[in-house]
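Input structure tokens:
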């Protein structure tokens, strides 16, 4: 096991510890938890698709920034980069 802590992990831990006292002083009801979970699950698909677009299609050109043949190749799966 790697004992080194990354900066990202330290930030996550600090954020958790910073917010914990508020959470403990202001617990939510079962109904509030169910509502929050339901809303999160309703947005999950849209969020995943947005994440996929940002990460998978990051380097693929758009028609207004590049010539149309490159854009068409990128959107038909025949693009292999340049």
């Amino acid at each position: 096991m790697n004992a080194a802590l990354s900066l990202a992990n330290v930030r996550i831990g600090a954020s958790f510890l910073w917010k914990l006292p508020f959470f403990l002083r202001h617990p939510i009801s079962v109904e509030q938890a169910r509502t929050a979970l339901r809303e999160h699950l309703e947005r999950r698909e849209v969020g995943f698709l947005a994440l996929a677009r940002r990460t998978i299609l990051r380097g693929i050109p758009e028609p207004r920034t590049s010539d149309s043949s490159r854009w068409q190749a990128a959107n038909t799966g025949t693009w292999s980069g340049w």
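Residues 8 and 16 are 12 Å apart (CA to CA). Helices lie at 7-25, 30-56, 68-76.
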